[in-house]
Amino acid sequence: MSQPDPTRPVLELRAVTRTHGNGEAEVHALRGVDLAVHPGEFVAVMGPSGSGKSTLLTLAGGLDRPSGGQVLVEGVELSGLNRTRLAAVRRRSVGYVFQDYNLVPALTAAENVSLPRELDGVSGRTARREALTALREMGIPDLADRFPEQLSGGQQQRVAIARALVGDRRLVLADEPTGALDSATGEAVLAVLRARCDAGAAAMMVTHDARHAVWADRVVVLNDGAVVDGGVGQAAHPLLAGGNGGRR
Ligand SMILES: Nc1ncnc2c1ncn2[C@@H]1O[C@H](COP(=O)(O)OP(=O)(O)OP(=O)(O)O)[C@@H](O)[C@H]1O
């Protein structure tokens, strides 16, 4: 991976708000979130159900637009981009692991993983080679030619993570990426995310599991749409006292 500018955040949220509905049905999913994630940083996002974690992730990945404030990925403000350029940033810079995996049913595991690279103009052969490398990293190289319906939930989840990691994405966003995995496989996946960050990427992961958060450098805690701990300029969450549990 080429060296990124270590002083520029890979992801920056400035006073981001997101409001759904209006009138009596108005919901403030995010209320003025400031957050920066730098190269090499692995951030865990925690908080009660409904506190805005998934909303934060979708805005960071350019899958939704804020009601107010700015989202910047590698210094580029997403709201200033047209659909084509936004799609290109999402493909090249952002790897997104969805809670429900979002694999294309008609494509094999390897084809699902290579799809974003082929859309980006990489040759089919190179894209397949990269896909096989990513599937190997996830411990499932033997499943490359299976279709999603022939895979267990945990296997599909690992394909989805391989798809998010392929192609040197600088920002990996993962919504409960270990949800369908047994604890040993979950730890192995977290080790891969940790290694990606140690190689210069940035990752933000929603998790409910404090044991998984110890792989992170920092825990951002959301409550009722606001960052209540671990945001910009705040010390690491007490959960992380002593770093990432010495697992690195
Ligand atoms: N499309 C939408 N329309 C209306 N309200 C929404 C929408 N998406 C999210 N919300 C509301 O915004 C708030 C934050 O939701 P979000 O899914 O971000 O929370 P979360 O912390 O990820 O929750 P969970 O841990 O249960 O997944 C909730 O009150 C939710 O009901």
From TrEMBL:
CDD domains: ABC_MJ0796_LolCDE_FtsE (cd03255). Residues 11-243 form the ABC transporter domain. Keywords: ATP-binding, Nucleotide-binding, Transport. InterPro entries: AAA+_ATPase, ABC_transporter-like_ATP-bd, ABC_transporter-like_CS, ABC_transpr_LolD-like, MacB-like_ATP-bd, P-loop_NTPase. Gene3D superfamilies: P-loop containing nucleotide triphosphate hydrolases. It comes from the Bacteria. GO terms for molecular function: ATP binding. This is ABC transporter ATP-binding protein.
